[in-house]
């Protein structure tokens, strides 16, 4: 239903966004450093469920409006692109404070359900993911093929599978190397700087591509 080239292009753009440490990744890393692997992976599951709720919302509501209106699509795309650039600039400027952000939840404790729920809350309220789904997801839908909602749900599933893999790697790496991360704010600063520049590039790409009809 979704052409392979569209699927691969969406997967590549999704990976670029997901690999950048954003609110969800920082939350997963914080839980991993504070509570270990199980809490990190539970948080990843919660984040993923929250993100897919955003996919469903876009597919059933905002997505259909955007799909019908070039004006709405263009406005949303430009707003989304500007916000991605803003997030990238902010990540770059605050790259030196990632150490504090990662350890904010260091004292947080709770059971598995609470960890799952808090991960869900972070995932569903993640502005980076919200903007991406609303502004970018409709670009990869082939309207001529029909079943627009199903296409969006499928693309969203691809995004979430990539997110599970990448976020799990972040969480497991942080849980394995707690002391290594904690001893070197410079390492976290480098990650934040690269992430900020990547997000800015993604915002520029979103602004420069899309529907021409």
Percent in helix: over 70%
Uncertain runs with pLDDT below 50, 5 residues or more? 105-109
Strand fraction equals under 5%
**SSE run:** HHHHHHHHHH
| Envelope shape | globular
The major sheet is characterized as: none
- Number of E strands: 0
Question: What is the number of helices?
Answer: 10
The radius of gyration computed from the alpha-carbon positions, rounded to a whole number of angstroms, is 17 Å
Mean pLDDT: 76
For the record, give the distance between the C-alpha atoms at the N and C termini, rounded to a whole number: 21 Å
Name the structural class. Answer: mainly alpha
Describe this structure in words.
This protein is an all-alpha fold and 213 residues long. It contains ten helices and no strands. The protein is globular and about 55 Å long. The model is unreliable at 105-109 (pLDDT under 50). α1 (4-19) runs antiparallel to α10 (185-208) and α3 packs parallel to α6 (112-124).
Overview features:
213 residues; mainly alpha; 10 helices; globular
How would you briefly describe this protein structure?
This protein is mainly α and 213 residues long. It has 10 helices and no strands.
Secondary-structure blueprint of this entry?
Blueprint: H1 4-19, H2 23-35, H3 37-68, H4 70-93, H5 98-102, H6 112-124, H7 127-135, H8 148-176, H9 178-183, H10 185-208
Helix pairs in contact: 1-8, 1-10, 2-3, 2-8, 3-4, 3-6, 3-7, 3-8, 4-7, 4-10
């Amino acid at each position: 239903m979704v052409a392979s080239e569209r699927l691969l292009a969406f997967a590549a753009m999704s990976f670029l966004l997901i690999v950048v440490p954003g609110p969800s990744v920082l939350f997963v890393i914080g839980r991993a450093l504070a509570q270990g692997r199980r809490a990190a992976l539970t948080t990843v599951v919660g984040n993923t469920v929250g993100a897919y709720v955003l996919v469903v919302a876009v597919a059933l509501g905002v997505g259909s409006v955007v799909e019908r209106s070039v004006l709405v699509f263009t406005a949303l795309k430009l707003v989304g692109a500007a916000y991605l650039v803003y997030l990238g600039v902010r990540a770059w400027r605050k790259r030196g404070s990632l150490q504090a952000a990662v350890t904010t939840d260091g004292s947080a404790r709770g059971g598995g359900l609470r960890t799952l729920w808090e991960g869900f809350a972070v995932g569903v309220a993640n502005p980076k993911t919200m903007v991406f789904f609303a502004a970018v997801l409709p670009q990869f839908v082939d309207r001529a093929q029909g079943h627009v909602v199903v296409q969006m749900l499928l693309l969203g599933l691809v995004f979430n599978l990539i997110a599970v893999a990448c976020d799990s790697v972040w969480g497991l790496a942080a849980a394995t190397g707690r002391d290594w991360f904690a001893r070197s704010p410079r390492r976290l600063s480098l990650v934040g700087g690269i992430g900020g520049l990547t997000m800015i590039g993604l915002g520029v790409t979103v602004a420069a591509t899309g529907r021409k009809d």
